[in-house]
Amino acid sequence: MHETSQEATALADLPVSQTPEVDFVRIRIAGDSGDGIQLTGSRLAESAARFGNDIATFPDFPADIRAPSGTIYGVSAYSLNIGETEVLTFGDVSDALVALNPAALKKYIGELKIGGLLIIDSSSFTERALEKAGYAADPRADGTLSDFRLLPIDITELTTAALRESGVSTKDAKRCKNMWTLGLIHWLFEREIDGVESWLKDKFANKPEIAEANLLALRAGHMYGEVAELPAEISRYHIAPAPLRSGEYRTINGNEAMAYGLYAGATLADLDAFYGSYPITPASPLLHTFAKLKELGALSFQAEDEIAAIGSAIGASYAGHLGITGSSGPGIALKTEALGLAVATELPLIVVNVQRGGPSTGLPTKTEQSDLFQAVFGRNGDTPIPVIAASHPGDCFDVAVEAVKIATKHMTPIFILSDGYIANAAAPWRLPDLGEGDYAPFPVTKATDPDGFLPFKHDPETLARPWAVPGTPGLMHRIGGLEREEGRGNISYDGDNHQRMTEIRAAKLDAIARDLPPQTVDSGGTSGKLALVGWGSSWGPIRVATRRAILKGKPVSHVHLRHIWPLPPNLKALLEGFDEIVVPEMNNGQLATLLRAELGRPVPGVSCVKGRPFLVREITDIINDVIGG
Amino acid sequence: MHETSQEATALADLPVSQTPEVDFVRIRIAGDSGDGIQLTGSRLAESAARFGNDIATFPDFPADIRAPSGTIYGVSAYSLNIGETEVLTFGDVSDALVALNPAALKKYIGELKIGGLLIIDSSSFTERALEKAGYAADPRADGTLSDFRLLPIDITELTTAALRESGVSTKDAKRCKNMWTLGLIHWLFEREIDGVESWLKDKFANKPEIAEANLLALRAGHMYGEVAELPAEISRYHIAPAPLRSGEYRTINGNEAMAYGLYAGATLADLDAFYGSYPITPASPLLHTFAKLKELGALSFQAEDEIAAIGSAIGASYAGHLGITGSSGPGIALKTEALGLAVATELPLIVVNVQRGGPSTGLPTKTEQSDLFQAVFGRNGDTPIPVIAASHPGDCFDVAVEAVKIATKHMTPIFILSDGYIANAAAPWRLPDLGEGDYAPFPVTKATDPDGFLPFKHDPETLARPWAVPGTPGLMHRIGGLEREEGRGNISYDGDNHQRMTEIRAAKLDAIARDLPPQTVDSGGTSGKLALVGWGSSWGPIRVATRRAILKGKPVSHVHLRHIWPLPPNLKALLEGFDEIVVPEMNNGQLATLLRAELGRPVPGVSCVKGRPFLVREITDIINDVIGG
Amino acid sequence: MTKLTVKDFASDLDVRWCPGCGDYAVLKALQKTLADGGSTLEDTLVVSGIGCSSRLPYYMATYGFHSIHGRAPTLATGAKLANPDLDVWVVTGDGDGLSIGGNHLLHVLRRNVDLQVVLFNNQIYGLTKGQFSPTSKQGTKSPSSPGGSVETGLNPCVYALGAGGQFVARCIDTQAKVLQPVLEAAQAFKGTGFVEVLQNCVIYNDGIFDGLKDKKTGPDHTLHVEHGKPMVFGVNRDKGLRVAKSGFGLEVVTLGDGLKEEDLLVHDEKNVHLAQALAALGENDGEPVVIGVLYRHGKHEFVEGARHGLPKTPLSRDEKLNRLNATLRTAETWRVE
Amino acid sequence: MTKLTVKDFASDLDVRWCPGCGDYAVLKALQKTLADGGSTLEDTLVVSGIGCSSRLPYYMATYGFHSIHGRAPTLATGAKLANPDLDVWVVTGDGDGLSIGGNHLLHVLRRNVDLQVVLFNNQIYGLTKGQFSPTSKQGTKSPSSPGGSVETGLNPCVYALGAGGQFVARCIDTQAKVLQPVLEAAQAFKGTGFVEVLQNCVIYNDGIFDGLKDKKTGPDHTLHVEHGKPMVFGVNRDKGLRVAKSGFGLEVVTLGDGLKEEDLLVHDEKNVHLAQALAALGENDGEPVVIGVLYRHGKHEFVEGARHGLPKTPLSRDEKLNRLNATLRTAETWRVE
Ligand SMILES: Cc1ncc(C[n+]2csc(CCOP(=O)(O)OP(=O)(O)O)c2C)c(N)n1
Ligand SMILES: Cc1ncc(C[n+]2csc(CCOP(=O)(O)OP(=O)(O)O)c2C)c(N)n1
Ligand code: SF4
Ligand code: SF4
Ligand SMILES: [Mg+2]
Ligand SMILES: [Mg+2]
């Protein structure tokens, strides 16, 4: 397991930017949710990643399926950071904003840096559109935009003009304006469009006219940059490839990586994967991805609700598959009774929580890390479950593999915490060497020998009980949620047995802890004035801010927890090397509370529950507060 | 609220026993679950309480509805401690054991003190019965019982003999043997049987022959003590009345007290009570008690499951009733999603958890305190809910009233933790002076004025939002689980608003904390070497052990928490007066963990998860360990 | 008080369904039903679960509760028990009401709580982006069923009848002529008025009801039943239903050739077995989908029974405390001086 | 291998139901069905929820899972999907299966998962000491309904049919002659075999089925249907069923006076509407309670469909990894040197 966490540190080889002005560019594309913004953004991300840049993305779309066009709440945006250094966050402010309508301008202009490039589609600035966006006056005329390098282009018109000859309807032509825009942005970043071209041909293979129209628009946009006499202050961005570790890469988001990782883990354990789930934002894509793995032998089951989902996964685990279930906070809440059953019956089970803003339905499309308490403590009884958290899209794969290892080695359910941000964000990902090194097989042995078989006898080291699967002759036994007699597993109401079993369940977590790789420092030294202790998707901003501060010579380190529960046994000692520790997290202080209980020292937390990841400057502020600016 | 907690301290006036040998007697009656043991025990408790003794009881019956007769697991027992000093616990060992069959003897002989009185029903010691109980040889013959003062009586035969003339069938006659036994025990304790007599007449008013038969048996048993020439070493117990605070008393168990207290609280708040629940051991009697309060205006609803139960209670609260729901651990687990909704919509709601052994179905008929984590932390999102715990049967009433006060004053759901032990145990209870003093009305004001009405505007002091009830003209508004805009309450996806609302929800708990009575010391001084910090039903054993230790001059105090979350603000300062603190609790260290997080000092815990309350000597051991025996 | 208009029933929030979504029409029909029937804003409560359809309460100027997924009937039951004077509407979807919420739907129907359940059946999970639902046709391709769904789609009206529903109806989103009177009848019904609305999701399941809604050919595929009226349908009103010879079966016949309207089966909304057969129609070619009130039978409303035994007039605080004092003393008491 | 006996199917735990409980007879019938049918211990899995009846798996020498309240069908579905070779039985009660677990019962039936559901209907919550259940008769006095329950009792077979159940049967605990063949048929059925067993709870609801079980008069109150056979019943086999004139209704008739057995309705277990009517019988005086297989129709088993598309033969670890590698590369990839 130790090796797996090296994956993350491998990224550490990427340099920190010392001159943000030239090392990376943060661009945001925003428009109506009908404008194809997410597609445009992800194609741009793909191109940048292919080119060899490091990238970080933040798709941000409305909760509504199709919000009424032209409204502020209907705006969809894709933020992208393209760097020749390590980027990891999508950027506190953007260097460039492409606003395809007034509402998009209104919503995001505040986050464009002074002097930033502002491209707007002038065709969309009609009176009615301005009014819908809540503009009393035309912002192009009243000086509102004077702080920026404004580049107004009649994108809609230019697109339809480019397609006039193609034969497509005006409506269809207008729908191509995102490709026109993408072409222009490619030009801006000195990128060729051949990648997008082949993707378009592929995507619309069955609709050649649509493919052709999109291609025409794309090329027209690209060409526009080349030939139009753009004002002198509009310069192109020159971002060289980042010195990434060698290997084969693709982009991936956290949900994909999680599903693939779970499948990989099951395979390395010589198990078939069973994914039982009920759709919920932002976890549904896990189900969608699993459904596509059927040819690979993975079973997926869309249950009638979250309880049925976990029930089916427990049933599948009992029958010898690797049972997996996934959901988000409110759905996880429904699973907590059954989680107790999984603990009681000591079956392997993976529970993925792709967290979103709470409480209750909360902010379903926004990110948050506020289900940590639920994962660690959220059950009746003394019901320990290990919890592990992923910190970036690619990490979801590794965390998934490790979770399978723990669950099968110790015969226990395990929680994996992901969140809406990394679930949807795309990042370049070095493809793993499956079957080797960090991904070596860890085949599971099921019980087959009736001789001396005791279903609730525990391995003294791992505290696992034997996994005896229905269908195996001679191992017939009954399990259930009533307390079981140690060893034989029959129902037992005996007080001493219950005390012993409670201790065994607790000891299982101790066994897991003993097995954990020692906690390391993500960036910075192993001692100093301040350690920022983070977990999950806050990794990116904390790392960026810490590395910049270190470059400035500040005695700060970043310690990032993958193992939330049990905590790595050396954590306390490690943190004793720091005068102060602060926990920035996207909740109201949950890990901080946990650490206070476990470390026996003050652990202040800094909370950000704004439906988005921390900004780098918010983390920098913490560092400055403690160490001094 | 301060006054309410005086109730508990009123009991403090009862003296501690300095000579346990004469101050109290611990008797256990055990037999087949068909033998009417629970009835016999509770009548004896009633008589003792009426006489003016302090009592503590522990009914302990099998999980099965009717376990096969004669088996060990089919044994039902009732333990009772009768004292002229404060007793509070049912006793670590018994002074007397009445075993109505061999299985009962086998199960409980180990807990009879050396030299204790042992009454057995000889008629039941048949070969078959001995075998069923697992006796290889007759324990009466092989010296097994030589350490005890054995009194074998042919109870079955004596009973049938006494009823021979009465005309009832032999089968019915045999069923009266519990009354015969009760008569004898009354004699043993120098108690008159007139109370039992009038109760019998009342109970069997419609079945005069049955009443007569029971009366005959009762009198025969009582008379037997008087006239039979009992061996010299069988002396009667002389327990004088305890110096209880003056007033009108009855016996009550925790479930009854809880239901009545909730009704009282609702009434004092000028609200109608609505109890929505789904049966579950040991919480079902709450539903049964509420069902009987219909003539008093309380609505009860047996829902299809726990989710429907809490849903109906939230609906009732929205419609202006006081919504209450109750369950036990696994059922509470199912309610956690809806609890988030109650927090989000800021409606008053009472959630009672009568805890039992976990995890999962666990030990449904046994007691435990292991749902504290679930209550404090068991939800997705940052979803604070106050938690308060009852420490003895009568305290359930007061805690219920206080919970209603908090829920309505701050517009919040609140958890009440009780457990299987106090839920079923009977204790003498001084009837409250409703409407006065501690039980003064605290009428709730609902919103009626449309002028400036904002459904999510918060009172700056209590952080309550207005309670605007459907049916009220002009206050129409929509609420729900999606994040709401502060003030107007419309759906809001705005990040800053979410941060603010998260803080408001947290601040609500601060407001509650500000309002709490300062934590006091239950027994002992406000500083010293050791404080035992307890909560819930561990109150009895901790208190008894602490008071005895104090009598012996040990520097130990007992601090008992009613308010688990938020904790009383002065707790930290109070506990600073003690060199060490130890938390004994019937779980694997849950309050201890919480206190570690909140107090910033080491908080060792001592765990007892054996399906029964702590023994006094287990607590004494803790004290001796820290302070020295 | 002047009667309220449709507009008065609309809240001031922008309606945020996809342009063209069938939900708009149902919202309008509900608002119109309430306005026409003289409902007041303050006595109307709309409770919903989660889903596109469940956003409806936000757009109503009445009281509203957008609760959690599948649980609306439970909140509605509690509210109605607490205040029977409220006119309570439950708005749900095929996922909300039949997938996660199937149990509560069963029990609200079985109890026959006096409220209305409007189930928007678009045969898809809209809000979570298009997965198949329990009512989706077998073979539905969706993100979670790329190879086509395997399960048989549930028929909501058949289910409602099996659950003991006493008022069961089916309508089509845009056919206000049928929908509105049915909503009105559901509201008037003392018990649970269950109304399935076939609703078009333009994004994830567009057009599945087009055949039924088509102005021209739709009448060939739908049969609007009314109590006491013969079951005739078709563009030319030349088709109808008869009982199959064996009993317990319906057959579609064509009028003419000596077969007259009088020979057709007459709708009897009190016959539950007939209702079950009518509800099931439409699965096979040639069978019409039946709309209108399939079943209505007014027995055993729940709330009235559940409140029976409460004090006739509300008790004052003192009366309650006195009664509690008396109750506490039904156990034996004793005095310590 | 020698065929196993009834005894072989009994585990070594003491059976701990109340003396006289109807559960004993059902346990025995199940064990006998398995033994007679040549089942093996290792391929049989019994999954239950919580309740007296749900203790059954402990008493079976097969694999068993005593899960949590109401959720047995979900675990059973997962286990069967994972290993279709298992013979899976779900044991549940009227509370477990119809109160908290009503939704899962709906969906397992709708999907038609190849397993058997045996629902012990004692019309009461036994394990929690006698509260009324969803199948309790209206007016049932219980600790939670001291004034008598208000709700209408649900008919499990009617519900199962409404939920799309494809095999629906009813039996009586102690009538092994009917129960055993029905269990056998349920097991043989490819899909969900739903069997309601009327079961006596001696403690909390004693004797409610005595009228049906009475050796002498019972036949006057029960009708045992068999496919293709006329619906005749009664102590003297002189009563029977006919279709009501209007269709969609059943009437009890007395034979004689020219009415012969041939004139009676013949059971057609493929007619769902008939099954619905048969299932509903027994509520009114004079109507028999119908036992036997009410409905059997073998369409669309779920597990087979859900597993369709999996590799025909299990993949080796390396094959899986290779396919995963290929899948990961369906996205564009690039090399960094
Ligand atoms: C506990 C829980 N599980 C899952 C979800 C995600 N979810 C929201 S709506 C929905 C399905 C909605 O389908 P339907 O009721 O048919 O409504 P529609 O959007 O089609 O109108 C799901 C699965 C949720 N909000 N809460
Ligand atoms: C989540 C949960 N809620 C409630 C219970 C309590 N409970 C156990 S069994 C039962 C009802 C059992 O009734 P039924 O299924 O009819 O079984 P029977 O005992 O009558 O055979 C209830 C309410 C529980 N164990 N778990
Ligand atoms: S996704 Fe479908 S159901 Fe939802 S609002 Fe859009 S069209 Fe309507
Ligand atoms: S309580 Fe009833 S159902 Fe339960 S074991 Fe006893 S007789 Fe059987
Ligand atoms: Mg839908
Ligand atoms: Mg039952």
TrEMBL record, chains A, B:
UniProt keyword terms in alphabetical order: Oxidoreductase
Gene Ontology terms, MF aspect: oxidoreductase activity, acting on the aldehyde or oxo group of donors
Residue ranges constituting the Pyruvate flavodoxin/ferredoxin oxidoreductase pyrimidine binding domain according to the UniProt record: 273-435
Keyword Oxidoreductase: yes
SUPFAM superfamilies: Pyruvate-ferredoxin oxidoreductase, PFOR, domain III, Thiamin diphosphate-binding fold (THDP-binding), TK C-terminal domain-like
Superkingdom, natural source: Bacteria
All copies of domain Pyruvate/ketoisovalerate oxidoreductase catalytic, residue ranges: 34-221
GO biological process terms, semicolon-separated: response to oxidative stress
Pfam families (alphabetical): POR (PF01558), POR_N (PF01855)
NCBIfam families for the chain: OAFO_sf
Name the UniProt record assigns to this protein: 2-oxoglutarate ferredoxin oxidoreductase subunit alpha
TrEMBL record, chains C, D:
Keyword RNA-binding attached: no
Protein name: 2-oxoacid:ferredoxin oxidoreductase subunit beta
GO terms assigned for molecular function: oxidoreductase activity, acting on the aldehyde or oxo group of donors, iron-sulfur protein as acceptor; thiamine pyrophosphate binding
Database matches in SUPFAM superfamilies: Thiamin diphosphate-binding fold (THDP-binding) (SSF52518)
Record organism: Pseudovibrio exalbescens
InterPro entries named among the record's database cross-references: 2-oxoacid:Fd_oxidoreductase, THDP-binding, TPP_enzyme_TPP-bd
Residue ranges occupied by any Thiamine pyrophosphate enzyme TPP-binding domain in the UniProt entry: 50-197
Record-linked PANTHER family: 2-OXOGLUTARATE OXIDOREDUCTASE SUBUNIT KORB, 2-OXOGLUTARATE OXIDOREDUCTASE SUBUNIT KORB-RELATED
GO terms, biological process: cellular respiration; small molecule metabolic process
Keywords: Oxidoreductase
